[in-house]
Each structure stands twice: as structure tokens, then as C-alpha cells.
């Protein structure tokens, strides 16, 4: 009989403390993938040992790359992208959209065929937007009605392209840039808005000449050099406890050494506009990224209309922002966020249904949501197997009027394996159980 993991979250009077957040998921993926492209040994500290990264690591192992992982210290040992071996089985990326999409860019220049697959969530996500520019560069790619499995036959003669992204997507931008490293000529990428720039930063740190003006330009071919990398702590994972502190911590929560890359922290600007009591301390550069300590305290949040320019800068934090909005006084409106429909679940629909379930009035729109702040009653919520939806509703339980249970929570292990322990350390009343269905 199949079983489902459930996490119960009960109201608490106060939470406080200092917590360590795991390594950044996006940057950990890039350390694996760029390290695999380089010939030699690349090391990285602070690696996220979560299911998405492990799936990507296993896919790269099938291409002949070797890894050593001691706690959070990663070593990538590779003969370089030119010496990848044809995989003898399907490459299973599990739940990892980043793993699949960036690997498509890399495999575009590998002169053999590979089949990329994943779990039921990944099998429902759009891949044509990635396949299209890579085909223009010379790769042969077949998707299944626009989704995985993806069959890709690379070409050793890729050519540069000038490409205007239809959406501000870091995964799409990165796939093209990684393919451009093996192509002949100047590749240019423009985007309708800003998206996270970890790929560009890591490429520079690994010896690549890349111009990151409004149009990103990279003259190929270029060879990535094996390097020593630092992976900062994940702001997206920290965001759950930032909001937890704002709704439930009189004494405050300190979250040290978190990545505060400008392309990632749109949530802080939105929360500031909502009246959040938060401080960014000790900001400094480590390797190619900025880190800082974040301190938050209980605040009287008020609803806001979120500027659409902040959407791509807070894309993975919008589910937990919706919980902050539910606890705020007044109405919060987020529009221009249709990309949320293509994440690990349709996050607009999943969040709207969950909020409804716990008694928060909201209106789902094609590209956004309107949330009317008010009491959270408690109840039972389906996370639809989406880690960020699951963690958002667990945090929502802190000051709910009754117990809140979230089911389908196993996916939390993809990005934040010790989430429950971290929550308990702050005094949240959360517990896991397994039910057979
Ligand atoms: C990611 C980019 C974002 C984000 C995803 C990770 C990345 O997606 O939602 O979780 O690592 O590049 P987009 O490609 O839509 O920006």
C-alpha cells in the first residue's frame, strides 16, 4: 500500500534562535555541472546534499564524471566535457528542473545520444523553450509533446546564436550559455527582465570571458578551468524562516551567512514594503557571491501591491510571501507571475487551494493572486508534492487558530533535508508522520 508523508504544524506562543541553512541549490547544481565540464579537479564547500543535487550528480556519473562528497565538501573529478562517455542508461534527473535544463545545454555539444527523464513532476514541465535555441545552435532534440523525456543528440559543430529569451528564466539563459562554450562564434542573449546570475558569476570564477551587460555575450569556444568554489547558504531556504520570524518571533531569529545575491532577494524588498522588521548585517563577498546575516522579528505586516519587476527576483519565494500576505492586514496583490504555473507544481493553483483550505480568502488569476489577510484557521493542505508549497504551509501553522497538517511532504528533501529539525530548533511544533492511503 502506498504511503504518504504528513507534517503537522501546531500553533506556538513564541519562536526564536539562530539557525544554519543548507547550501544554495542553484549554486550547488552549477558546481556539479560546471565542475564536470572542466578537465581536472574542482572543489566546492557548502554543497547542498539534497535529492535534486544527488540526482544531477548521478546523471553526470553516467557520463563518466566522478564525485567525492564528505559532509558538505564536494570534489568533482572529470576528464572534461570533450571526454564524456555515452550513457548506458536513461539519465534520471528526479525532481530537478535545473539539472535537466542545464544538462540539455551541456549535452548539446556531446556527439552522442542521451535520454533525459525524471519524476512525475519533472515529466510535466516545459522543455521546448530550452530545446528551441539549442536546436538553432545545431543540437538534435526531441521532446515528448514539449515535455520530458527529452532525447538529445549533440553536435561537435555547434554555432553561436543571438537569442532573445521569451521569459526571464535563469535556466534557459544558462542552458544557452553552457552550450555557447562549445560553439563557434559570439553568442548573445537578451532577456525581458533580470533572472538569477549564478551561472555567469561561476563561469567568470572558472576563467571564462563573458560580458554581462544588458546583452550577455560569450565568444566560443572557451574551456572552463577546474577551480576552488564556495557555495553560500540558500536564501530561498532561509525565506521560510524569515517569514516565520516576522509572524511569530518576539525575540527574533538570526540566520547567518546567507547568499544575498541581488538577483535573489526581491522578497526582502517586498517584505520591507509590507513593514517588516528585518536587518541585513555583515554583508561581504565570498568567492563570486555576497553573503550576509539576516535578523528578523515579529512585525505588523500590511498588504501591498507587488511591483511586477520584483517577481523574477523573488520567484521561488512567492509561495512563502503568500503566507506572509495571509498574516498581513489588508490586501496583497501579485500579478505577472504566470511562470509559477510551471514550477514543481502549478504554484498559483496549489497555493490558492491551500489558502482556501485554511480559511484565507483569495482570488486566483491567470497570472497572479489576490490575498485578503485574515486569520488562518488550520486544516489539511495538499502540497501537490511541491517542496516550497509544503514548507510554506508548515510555517503558516505557527500562528494558526488550529492545527495545520500538510501532506505529500517528502519533496522537502529535494532542497532542505533537515527542515523539520531546523524548525524544531526554533521552537516550532512540527512533527512528521506517515499514513497509508
Ligand atoms: C533556477 C532558476 C529559476 C528557479 C529554479 C532554479 C536555477 O527558474 O525557479 O528553482 O537554478 O537557474 P527559472 O529558470 O524559471 O528562472
Give a nutshell description of this structure.
By secondary structure, the protein is α/β, with parallel strands linked by helices. Helix content is about 30%, strand content about 30%. The strands form 6 sheets. A 4-stranded mixed beta sheet has the order 22-23-1-24. Strands 2-15-17-16 form a 4-stranded mixed beta sheet.
How many beta strands in the DSSP annotation? 24
Biggest sheet character = 4 strands, mixed
Question: Order of strands in the sheet with the most strands?
Answer: 22-23-1-24
Give the end-to-end Cα distance, rounded to a whole number of Å: 7 Å
Estimated share of beta-strand residues? 25-35%
Q: How many independent structural domains?
A: 2
| Helical amount | 25-40%
| Shape type | globular
Radius of gyration: 21 Å
Low-confidence stretches: none
Give an account of the 3D structure.
- This protein is of the alpha/beta class and 437 residues long.
- The chain folds into two domains: 4-23 and 233-435, Enolpyruvate transferase domain (UDP-n-acetylglucosamine1-carboxyvinyl-transferase, Chain, Alpha-beta prism); 25-219, Enolpyruvate transferase domain (UDP-n-acetylglucosamine1-carboxyvinyl-transferase, Chain).
- It is built from twelve helices and 24 strands.
- It has helices at 25-37, 51-61, 97-107, 128-137, 170-180, 198-205, 235-248, 266-273, 318-327, 347-357, 387-396, 419-425; strands at 3-10, 17-18, 39-45, 66-70, 73-79, 91-92, 113-117, 140-144, 147-153, 162-164, 185-190, 210-212, 216-220, 228-230, 253-259, 277-286, 289-297, 305-306, 331-334, 362-365, 368-372, 379-382, 404-407, 429-436.
- It has a four-stranded mixed sheet with strand order 22-23-1-24.
- α1 (25-37) packs parallel to α3 (97-107) and α1 (25-37) packs across α6.
- The longest helix is centred in the middle third of the chain and has 14 residues, at 235-248.
- Bound molecules: shikimate-3-phosphate.
- Shikimate-3-phosphate is lined by residues 26, 29, 98, 169-172, 174, 195-196, 315-316, 339.
